[in-house]
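Study this chain:
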Amino acid sequence: MLRSIRTRLALLFLLAVLPGFVLATAYDLYVFREHVRSAVADLADRVRVVGGADGVLIGDSQLLLRTLANLPQVRQMGRDPAACSRAVAGVLRGSPYYAQAAVVDAEGTLLCSDNSHHLGEVSIDRRTVARAIAERRFAIGDNAAVAREPGTFHRIHLAYPVFAEGDKPIGAVELALDLDWLNQRFAALALEKGTVLTLVDATGAVLARYPGPEPHVGRPLAPAVEALLRAGKTMGEAVFGDDETRFFALAPLGDTAPADLALLLSIDRTTLLASAVRDLLADIGTFFLVAVLGVALALLGGAPLLLHPVRKLGEAAARLTAGDLAARVAPPYERTELGRLAIAFDQMAAALEERERDLRKAHDYQGRILAIAGHDLRQPIQIVQLSHEMIGAGALSERERKYLARADDALRRLVHQLDLIAEAGRLEGKQLAPRLEPVALAPIIAEIAAEHALAAQRKGLTLRTAPSQAVALSDREMLATILRNLVSNAIKYTRRGGILIGCRRQGEALRIEVHDTGIGIPAHRLDEVFTDFYQLDPKSEGLGLGLAIVRRTADMLGHRLSVRSIPGRGSCFALVLPRAGADQPAERRAG
């Protein structure tokens, strides 16, 4: 009980703090989501800053292309290739960002280059040149990789149209932006661990990447990322090529459209959410620690506050249950609910003690009355029986003998009923104490059969016994009382047929059975027959105490009593009792 109260105290504390935990967890989850949103927004701000800074190079490249397109040597479109090459090389001098510069006519023919001595090694992105001429504007190529031996160089091709007099495009100037330099620029940003910066072109191909440009450069982005970019998403969460969920943000490079060049800044989920997860786990850990300390205080500190008075109540209740009617909690009483409960308990115990005294007086009076019925009334009955025997020895007419037999039968029933009353009184007053010992069953069964032989014969019944050498562990007199009442009850409710008394082994126990061919007992009344003053046939003679005495005596001995019956065919009462050990000699008293 005390352990249960401690558990309930702990549970009560947990229930008290549970709403706070739910609210705190909900708030932590809200803060966690806000942290994620803020982190993604910060990611977008960072990529815009980087895109704006690196986009200056694109703007400078556009300005440089315009300058080249307006050079007279360029607008002559190949009339003097050497002068054109010197002019282009002079403009590019001091610009390490560009791998090459070239002038191309409207048909895509290379006219001159900053490297005039190796025109055959110049690689032109004619698609970008043609688009710049056709659209009459600055164009960014989508061919990410151009190979040249030895090794592979990654470039972005930029083109700007060259206009003749009358604003007619007659060719284009092309620059190749060296992506190796851009990778170095990304590396100089000192991005934190788990962050990846990627430059992509209009086709979704990777132009530059840090960290680890290889083997990603020249390859397309993961399908999931491409799908989000095509849908116009500039920030969110996606699965990248390494099967890792990452947050990303997208921004155009400089003032270019996102479909031309864009920077993609991504960070793995673990890195982005590390601080938020730490905060969430710290809050949950703090609450858990508080809960553990609270439960510990409830379990340990509850003893002096609550368990001590409860323990006193429990001890007093146990004493009262054991029969100590003087058990009290006793003052001083606490001015609490438990204190009022202790007062009520002591008042109840005092009332029970007073009632027990009254009952004991009543039992003592009942015992004296039953003693008179069992002893003092027997004496005049014995005198009457003796007188009947003397009268019966004389010469009597048939009619006189008939009346005398009726009187003898009435006296016999009266003696039997007085015996039942006396036995019931002793059981009710608990004046009997079983004395268990080895008891041979054959003499007891024979004794009971002899006692009831005449009563069975008068009703025309057969009374048989089955031979048995069994030895039981029981109280001989109390066992005889049980069998005597069972046989008497069987004769009482049997009109034809007979009664059989027998014993058989049942495992390590013995089973004594009394069979009859009487009126039987309905199934719904099998338990009622063992109650006081109950009779199956209200017209039958008797007090209805026989089977009640059987049940109480069996309970006192610890023997199991049972009955099975079929109405109209008879009943079988069975008593299961322990078998005496081989080293326990049976008592030899005759019946």
Observations:
- Confidence is low (pLDDT under 50) at residues 144-153, 582-591.
- The two ends are 52 Å apart (CA to CA).
- The chain is about 50% helix and 20% strand.
- Residues 2-69 form the longest helix (68 residues).
